[in-house]
Amino acid sequence: MERLFIKVDSNNTPINHPIWESNLRALLPKFNFDSPFIPNGYKLFERVPEPSIGIYEKFKEEIGEDIAIAFTHNGLEYKYFPDEDKVKDVWHVRDLTDDEKKAKQDIVKDLWEVEGYPSWIWNEAKCQYEPPKDHPSNGKLYEWKESTQEWIEYPRDYDNAYAWDRSKEEWVIYTE
Description:
The protein has 176 residues and is an alpha+beta fold. It has 3 domains: 4-95, no CATH class; 96-130, no CATH class; 134-176, no CATH class. Helix content is 14%, strand content 32%. It contains 2 helices and 13 strands; from the N terminus they run E-E-H-E-E-E-E-E-H-E-E-E-E-E-E. The protein has helices spanning 21-27, 98-115, and strands at 4-8, 14-20, 42-46, 57-59, 76-81, 86-91, 93-95, 121-123, 128-130, 142-145, 150-153, 162-165, 170-173. The strands form 5 sheets. The protein has a 5-stranded mixed beta sheet. A hairpin with a 4-residue loop joins strand 5 (76-81) and strand 6 (86-91). The chain is elongated, with a radius of gyration of 26 Å. The chain starts with a strand and ends with a strand.
């Protein structure tokens, strides 16, 4: 696997973004990359996968603005670890404030008022509505029939394509 390096200043503060060894070889053609040494002014870099964040968490916006171009958000910094003599990704996540949490819930609830079903139950921990009966877990396609509060399976008719008609609460043959 190809190694990553990153340029550092005299205090081992990372500069810019990591660079692949093959690109660094092109920049430093006289350096022997097969030796155990690392070019002066560079450190090995270790990618740390972006964490999965919880429903009520977000990346810290105030961190990583200078390197966020590679991501869809801030919250990442490159940090030197002297005990390992390398630089790594460090992700910063924070909990939503009470106001942010409420705003997020309000968006879901407002949309549910328009598109949701009255029988479904709000789950605050997941910030979503859930049906009163679990969705079948057999891998087949179903839609919710509110009037009978049951899941209706997609028809087993291979000659036609179907779409769920919410007003009729039934599968109807799809026509363009």
